[in-house]
Amino acid sequence: MFRRKLGLAIVCSLFAVAPLRAETVFTFSSWIPLTHGLNTNLYIPWAEAVEKASDGEVKIRFLPKAVAAPDAHFDAVRTGQADIAFGTHGYSPQQFSAYHFTDFPFLGDKSAVTSLALQRTHEQFLTDKDYYRGVHLIGMNTLGPGVLYHTKKFIESPEDMAGQKFRTGGVYVRRLVEGLGGVSVAQPITKAYELLSTGVVDGHAGHSEQMVGFRLADVLPFATYIPGGLNSGSMYLIVNQAKYDALSPKGKQAFDQYSGEVFARMAGEAWDKINGEGKAAHEAAGGKTIVAPDSVVEAMRKIDAEFETEYFATAKEAALDGSAILKFFHAEVEKLSGQ
To answer: Which domain holds residue 322?
Structure first.
């Protein structure tokens, strides 16, 4: 009897010293369908990895419906409407002006490379800024190379762009299309199929994954690929700061383990995968792709030079060296491409 009581006392004392940590549920708001390849190939596997690393302390629950518009998800996480979300730097151009260069052409052909280069550029130049005040930054990535799609023809010269209406989704893509002689129709990607299938627009400036993610393969048989990409764009993943801070060291480490360069690699590889699936779907639907001729590339380089000049001036106003940022990024891309 004495031994039984002693054993019980020891067990009770152990639990008193090391109580089990309660499960903390984090809600994840996604403004694209949960069946989209970006969720199934990146955000859901990332969430599962974090949960596993936390030994049961962290549970991430994907909400059935987004809590806010795509461009409002930063504030949604900051204010606690959701605990985790991703956003696009280009949706908040004033807040994230330091990242404008990710919307320039010729960044690179692989998101796995440019995502890691972007993460390293952020860590080298931008971590001490207040761009992510009120949230905990997990990491960032690029979307891979943008493509010029058309319903009726390839873009084999700048003249082929004259008067052609393109669905665009960002300031710099709009300016690229207009700079080449086209007409920009700024509409969300969710409107692309309707605009293209009804003939409201002639083309689409976007990414290959959209051939699957938004069912565009059947309405865009012609693709003109610009080496290095028409553009790229960039995204970030964030967590509510207070919710993160309330975790135990083990719980925080679970998030930290899949942050920074680890997240950038995961995201870049996911984007390359879904862009590859988009290319395959485009080909399966009878679509054809050409590489843009020199005349189109040279016309884009002139526009790109204007973008860089503007970026340097904007960066200087923010006490940043825009030239050093771009040089570092491109050097990282070159280095990583050779590995």
So the answer is: 146-231+285-337
